[in-house]
C-alpha cells in the first residue's frame, strides 16, 4: 500500500499488512481506487483462499452438487421427450 501514490490512513496500511492469508509465497493485495471530483475514494476488500476440503465439507456444497445433478437429469429427460415427440410427428 505504501507504494501507491495516495494518502492512506495508517489503519488501512496496518490492515493490509496483517490481513490473514492461507496460501504459500508472497502476500498478494488487490487494491483499487476510484477517482472522484472531490476526494479519493478507496475500495478495500479481503479475499480468503480456502482449500477445496473446506468448501467440500460445507452443507451447501452437497446441496449445490444435488442441484447441478438435478438440472443435468432434467436436461437429458426434456431432450429425450422432445426427440420422442418429433419422431411421433414425423411418423404420422
N- and C-termini, Cα separation: 73 Å
The largest pleated sheet is described as:
2 strands, antiparallel
Helical region count? 3
Q: Helix-strand pattern, N to C?
A: HEEHH
Mean pLDDT: 67
Strand content: 5-15%
How many strand units? 2
Oligomer: single chain
The 3D shape can be described as: elongated
Specify Rg, calculated over alpha carbons. Answer: 26 Å
Q: Can you list the strand order of the major beta sheet?
A: 1-2
Give the class from helix and strand content and strand pairing. mainly alpha
Low-confidence stretches: none
Number of structural domains: 2
Helicity, as a percent range: 40-55%
Characterise this structure:
- With 92 residues, the chain is mainly alpha-helical.
- Strand 1 and strand 2 form a beta hairpin.
- It has two domains: 10-44, no CATH class; 58-91.
- It has a two-stranded antiparallel sheet.
- It has three helices and two strands.
- 0% of the residues are buried.
- The model has no long low-confidence stretch (mean pLDDT 67).
- Helices cover 51% and strands 11% of the residues.
Amino acid at each position: 500500500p505504501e507504494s501507491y501514490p495516495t494518502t492512506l490512513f495508517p489503519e488501512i496500511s496496518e490492515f493490509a499488512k496483517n490481513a490473514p492469508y492461507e496460501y504459500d509465497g508472497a502476500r498478494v493485495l488487490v487494491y483499487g481506487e476510484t477517482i472522484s471530483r472531490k476526494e479519493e475514494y478507496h475500495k478495500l476488500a479481503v479475499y480468503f483462499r480456502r482449500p477445496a476440503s473446506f468448501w467440500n465439507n460445507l452443507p451447501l456444497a452437497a446441496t449445490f452438487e444435488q442441484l447441478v445433478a438435478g438440472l443435468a437429469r432434467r436436461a437429458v429427460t426434456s431432450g429425450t421427450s422432445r426427440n420422442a415427440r418429433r419422431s411421433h410427428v414425423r411418423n404420422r
